[in-house]
Amino acid sequence: MSTSILIHQPVSETIIRHTLDNSLGAIEHLYKQLNDKGYAFLRNQNVDNYTFDFYCPTAKIAIEVDGYAHEFSDVYSKDVSKKLFISSLGITVLRFTDYQILVDMDEIFRTLKNQFIQN
């Protein structure tokens, strides 16, 4: 049995700033596309102690935009516990990377459509 060890390496402020700028652009782009397609998502919505990038209360669907920071183990661990708690409330959490949003909106809308059909 092999064991993997995660080694945290410091990330430069330039990389963090670049990633944050791209994530914010992706969030703005997704918000515009959701509105253009007629989806009723609210931005930065709180559900209990958690905040979602987008949330549709009638369909109980939340969207999280994952940027570079979500690749760190401590952020990932928080995301897992958040998803477990939120799913216990009957809310479906869809996760998309900022890269997916910027290059493949068709797939995102296929996923959303399928989720709305299931609800």
Give structural notes.
- The chain is an alpha+beta fold and 119 residues long.
- Mean pLDDT is 78; it is low at 1-9 and 69-75.
- The termini are far apart.
- The chain has a four-stranded mixed beta sheet with strand order 1-2-3-4, with helices on both faces.
- 50% of the residues lie in helices and 21% in strands.
- The protein has one domain (13-118): VSR Endonuclease (Endonuclease, Chain A), CATH 3.40.960.10.
- It has helices at residues 13-36, 73-88, 98-103, 105-118; strands at 42-47, 50-56, 61-66, 92-97.
- It is built from four helices and four strands; from the N terminus they run H-E-E-E-H-E-H-H.
Question: TL;DR?
Answer:
With about 120 residues, the chain is an alpha+beta fold.
End-to-end separation: 41 Å
CATH architecture: 3-Layer(aba) Sandwich
Indicate the proportion of strand residues: 15-25%
Roughly how much helix do the residues carry, as a percent range?
Answer: 40-55%
CATH structural class: Alpha Beta
What is the H/E order? HEEEHEHH
CATH superfamily: VSR Endonuclease
CATH fold node name: Endonuclease, Chain A
Low-pLDDT parts are 1-9, 69-75
Please give the largest β-sheet.
4 strands, mixed
The overall strand count is 4
Strands of the widest sheet, in order across it, are: 1-2-3-4
The shape, in one word, is: globular
